[in-house]
Amino acid sequence: MTTSWVPAADKSGFPLQNLPYGIFSRRSELPRVGVAIGDQVLDLSVLAARGVLPGCRWSASGTLNAFLATGPRVWREVRERLLRLLGDAAQRPAVLPVLVPMECPRSCRWRRC
Q1: Of 35, 57, 82, 93, which has the fewest Cβ atoms less than 10 A away?
Q2: Contacts of 83 by beta carbon, 8 Å cutoff, 6+ apart
Q3: Per residue in 44-74, is it b (16+ CB within 10 Å) or e — as a string?
């Protein structure tokens, strides 16, 4: 899989090959973990709550600390699952509702894990 079904992802700084993790929030919502894809953020906490990313309760924590503590095996498993979700158009119905527009300032930091 080298391309994503997410609009404009392949022509952005955040294509399928570069899925950085970051903390984001929307007005009146708690911060949580997301992944940048194109000009959007994939809300991992919602995917975890819906069972699409099982075992990822850390995604609602508001920091990357718990995720980083899980280690390389879990990082690899999560990344592989994200690649399938964002690269396979059949996954679009499960993912599209949890993509949110990226509205963070330029100082927003995304980290590749």
Answers
A1: 93
A2: 1, 16, 19
A3: bbbbbeeebbeebebbbbbebeebeeeeeeb
- Report the SS3 class of residue 63: coil
Both tokens of 97, joined, read 């509702």
Separation of alpha carbons 97 and 43, rounded Å:
9
* Rounded distance between C-alpha atoms, residue 37 and residue 35, angstroms: 6
- Percent of the chain whose pLDDT exceeds 90: 63
How far from chain centre, in Å, is Cα 13? 14
Give the DSSP per-residue string, 41-59: EEEHHHHHHTTSSTT-GGG
Give tens-digit pLDDT for 46-98. Answer: 999 999 998 899 999 999 999 999 999 999 999 999 999 999 999 999 999 99
Q: 34: closest CA among 94, 110, 88? A: 110
Q: Do the bridges between strand 99-101 and strand 40-43 make them parallel or antiparallel, or are there none, so unpaired?
A: antiparallel
What is the C-alpha separation between 24 and 110, in angstroms, rounded? 10
